[in-house]
Amino acid sequence: MIRSRAHGRKPRRLWAAVAGVAIVSGGLLLPAQAASADAGQPWMNAKQSPSTRANELLKAMTLADKVNMLHGVDTSQSPVPTVGYIPPIPRLHVPGITMTDGPAGVRDRVDKSTALPSPSAEAASFDAGIAEEYGSVLGGDARALGQNVVFGPGQNIQRVPANGRNFEYYSEDPYLSGTMAGADVRGIQRHGVIATVKHYVGNNQETDRKTVSANMDDRTLHEIYEKNFGVAVADGRPGAVMCSYNRINDVYACDNSETLGSLRSQLGFKGFVVSDYPATHATTSIKDGLNVELPTGVFNTLANVQAALDKGSITTADIDGRVRETLTVLFAFGLFDRDTTARGTIDQDSDNAAAQRIEAQSAVLLKNQGDVLPLGSSTHDIAVIGAPAKTSAQGGGSSKVNPLSADNAYDAIVSRAGSSATVSYADGSNLDQAAAAARSAQVALVFVKDSEAEGSDRTNLSLPGNQDALVGAVATANPHTVVVLQTGSAVLMPWLQQVGGVLQTWYPGARGGAATAQLLWGDVNPSGKLPQTWPASSTQTPVGTKAQYPGINGESSYSEGVYVGYRWYDEHAETPLFPFGHGLSYTGFRYSDLRLRHSSGGSGDPVTASFKITNTGDRAGAEAPQLYVGKPDTLAPTAPRELGAFGKVQLAAHETKTVSLTVNPRELSYWDSGAQAFTVQDGSYTIAVGGSSASLPLHTTYRVKKTDGPVRIEVRGLPDVVDPGTTYTVTAEVGNLSDFALTSAAIKVSAPAGWSVTPRNGGIKTVPAGGRATRTFHVTVPADAKQGATGLSVTLRGRVDQRRMSAVRTRRVNVPYASMAAVADTVGVTDNSNASAGNFDGTGYSYSAQSLAADGVTPGGTVKVGTATTVFPAQAPGTPDAVSASGQVVRVSGTGKALVILGAAHNGAGRGTLKATFTDGTSADVPVGFSDWYGNAPTDLSSIVSTGQWNQPATGGKGPHDVSLYGEVYPLPAGKTLAYVTLPAVGNMNLFAVGIDDSGPLPTTP
Fold first, then answer.
1. CA–CA dist 774, 766 (Å, integer)
2. Is 530 in a helix, a strand, or coil?
3. 111, 276, 288, 841: which is the annotated catalytic residue?
4. CB-side exposure of 446: number of CA atoms within 13 Å?
5. What is the DSSP string of 353-397?
6. Is 276 in the active site?
7. Using an 8 Å Cβ cutoff, are 809 and 718 in contact?
8. What is the DSSP letter of 810?
9. pLDDT tens digits for 567-607?
10. Distance (Å, rounded) from C-alpha 226 to C-alpha 237?
């Protein structure tokens, strides 16, 4: 009997289990030595709980010690090869922490390790047991190589079919992705190695990945892009999460208090968060939820942390909280109680066997016309065509492994065919030769591959080079042509109708050749299923507009909402090339006798379905049954069907088994933004079972009669930008859409320090089912309110059907800064005599005041931008004069013909959107684009204002270099008065001035 891994269940107590596991040596697990505590170091007592030990250690740490834990250092300091390193604190017995890449095998840039099939292959197994075995190979290799943290699994949603990292991710479906990731994590962490689930969150394209903003509504964020992480956290309890490069709704992921807050408060994550390399943009990321800045410290250095403490932008409690979270995980995994860099021996034979087993269970038979496969003893003349037959494809970037060993399909085919067979080979570079080889053979096996890699997306879904033409030529020459794909994800197949068979082997790993031969001859019956929909054309995609992908001016609109992958195809009645969940076999399977344990229930009840699967053929095989849920759309529009459970069952020839799948109540739910919770609606649910999302022969209905949600709270009356000294009337409205009364209700308003909140009517105690109630408050913003972004939180608590419930709505607001000078936080210009005071780019470099002056740019002076003018900051060199653009709201008042912006980007070009808001409440989006100051080149939006030498710090080593200052002019609507501007949220863009020009004709940029 199969039971799906329901992610709402109580997770295994993995952390307690891994604490006593020691190094892998020769494939054996040796018991760890228990640490003994010195009288002055009680945290070294391994008998205490991890949290107790962390608290004891924290009390003994200086600020410098704590900052040591907040960032990595150059990996040359590590005693073993690694890609990330936190140095030890010897006097406190804090170990050094090694971190390695690892979604598809351990990659420390030096050592060899086991090359596993691509994670997309792992997901295609539709088998959590396979995923756990996959993770176990990773964890074992990492432990043997002295690594403490593995950066994997990667599990971003495959929103964009051409995403260059789809090979590294699992699926377009959050439930499948999260379930496989959770199992992978369990496998890694059984070896006492910390798994890092990544990239949180919305990292769904490589194009502009470091700056693009994934703009989506609250429901889409929670229901699609965060849900998979929630499943993985519940199922696997990963010790770490890596935040991504991109922005979410204009706020960078590693500095995003909303998404990092949701990770902990809503998804239940208890570990530590590390940044991508580098994806940190401010020291305040510590407050926002980031634990460790990687690869090295730029923002979270001792000097910057001390400055942030002095300024009040972070607190000691913020630092302690982040360090405590990290230490607790390190104690839980036993890293204080063993030699963290001890190295052992990778069991290559065992790992290779596992890699072959995983690949054999993950390959997908896409087409098999006329039973061209499997090959048999009568197949004595085989043409193998295509260079990929003699290689083993891998994805590029941080997932590319330096393999201990790798076989190839050609050698495996020759071996499997036997001495009585003839196997010819053509590399495919000459189409005529390839066709001739195919024409003289009984069967032609054409091997083709794509090219996917971190850092760039594919330009299209076609096979690179002349491979489509190669397949066409071979298929014309031989009707018994089988295409063997080595691709990380979907490709187009203009030749599909010409060929007899298609076998998708993904990036097949260390023993992909042997597994491919097993599958071609039927020694293993293919049983993989597609974890992603394969489109029939390049335009058949849920993200078909430029605004959706790659985005316009750095803004990517997720306007498709929750309709991602097969949800979009089903909603729009589009027929793809191959549907989600598709996969053929050398035998057949019949589904029958669907029954539900209960035909109805409440919103908190799981749904268990049983059914029979019969192997109708003469071969043994495995099938991956899938259960889909069709939800009512009374309260929210939903896709026609969503994956709710799956499993894998082995069947002998003609055998029948009864299979049981259980749907967690969360898979019946949708995310209700008003309730800030997953909610199950009343109504009738369709339960459908079959072999793919498009082949569901069994259907029945399940009815939810009573639901305890949603209970919504909405907050109105507080504008996005508030004026100091003003009182606002704020209304909290409760809507009880559940089938039970809300009792013991209470509403609490939390405001920033110094703000006053005065209730204007009585409290709410009971709200009947279907009822509404309101409570009104006067909220006064003090005249001396702290400038910047802040929030007003309204919390509703009560009981529904005797269960406690709570909903929190936070109204994000801004107290505008009085001027650009008031928000200046970066020393961008220094005198040549004091270069060390500057830090325009985060690494200590700055503009030279003398070089700027030579071009007529002086403190408080007028600067020309085309025919427009603005004023350069009046601050003296060596003091804060620039603003690191992170969405600040600044007063820029008045009327004029144009807005003039002065600044530059650093560490790459910067593009974003500045919002200009007028006194009548309307606004205009102003695209801003600056080149890197080091690049000295205009953009389509800006021009060079000045070019001169930079000032480099004493520790600098790059030598003299010209750097440029850029200006941009944006025409303002006539007759409107500007009130304030909202700066772009682009962490690598610094602005010196934003002002109004009203002189002469309409100003222009040259």
1. 11
2. coil
3. 276
4. 35
5. HHHHHHHHHH-EEEEEGGG--S--TT--EEEEESGGGGS----BS
6. yes
7. no
8. E
9. 999 999 999 999 999 999 999 999 999 999 999 999 999 99
10. 15
